[in-house]
Amino acid sequence: MTTSTTQPNNRSRARRVLLSAARVAAALAFWGLIWQGAAMIVNQELIVPRPLTVLRQLLDLGATAGFWQAAGVSLLRIFIGYVLGIAAGVLAAFLTSTFRAADWLLSPAIRVVLATPVASFIILSLLWIGHTRVPAFISMLIVIPIVWANLCTAVRETDRDLLEMARLFRMKKSRVLRLIYIPAAMPSFRAACLTALGLAWKSGIAAEVLCLPKTAVGTQLYYSKIYLETPALFAWTIVVILLSFLLEKGITRLFSLSAGQRKEGRHANS
Asked: What is the pLDDT of residues 172-199, one digit of tens each?
């Protein structure tokens, strides 16, 4: 019985994977043709290099140790800022939702961060901290308001009937937090983390372009532009896109595994 139900599920999963891969391939082929057509019309490699030229440049970069070092350092640096931003956003949401004084003090400051251009913070950060730490700091700064705003909204929209029931049964605050607030906030938290990831990555790369750490993807982008190495500039831009895609897939997978473990835990308890 188990084998008969597992096989159709596996076939269905394989079909979905193949369909998704076909869609991606079709999209890449379409935009590759558009790119090739634009390169042929312009006919200047300095302005629009041909896709094959950029692909060769990308393969040449991938064969060097410096490429992997720059990609790894940028990933680690920005991911650290991203994680710190999530932690700070969660803490700020907890404080502003629990204590009125914290709301008065923190909410205006977070809204200022949300409204200020990223470039301004990058330039100011260069005056405050070392240029190698700026990308992580900027990534953290970008994430905080997004996580804070989503969690505060989730707390305000928590089911009042459940909260009233918890009050009538005199549940401890820790149990109310664990059984009502956290489950209610998880969808908003997940959405905030996924939204903040792309913004943190783009802001971190922008900070690298302006701060020029010794080893970074953003630094390579900057020097490719300065030395008019357009194929390399396109290749590093593709690297930025691919790394962003991998980060997003990794975080999404992490949330999926976490959700599966919570479901298994609930089934085991029941």
From this structure: 877 887 888 888 889 899 999 999 999 9
- Cα–Cα distance, 3 to 6 (Å, whole number): 5
Task: Determine contact, residues 122/206, Cβ cutoff 8 Å.
Answer: yes
Residue written as token pair 């490719």: 224
Map residue 209 onto helix, strand or coil.
helix
The Cα–Cα gap between 75 and 243 comes to 8
Which three-class secondary structure state does DSSP give residue 112? helix
Q: Give the separation between CA 38 and CA 243, rounded to whole angstroms.
A: 25
Instruction: Return the DSSP state at 228.
Output: T
CATH 2.30.290.10 fits 50-269, yes or no: no
Burial class (CB in 10 A: 0-12, 13-18, 19+), 152: buried
For the chain, give every domain's residue range.
Answer: 1-43, 50-269
Other CB atoms within 10 A of residue 140 CB = 23
* Short-list 198, 211, 200, CA closest to 122: 211
Amino acid at 136: A
**pLDDT band at 263; cut points 50, 70, 90:** low
Nearest to residue 139, comparing CAs of 206, 47, 50, 71? 206
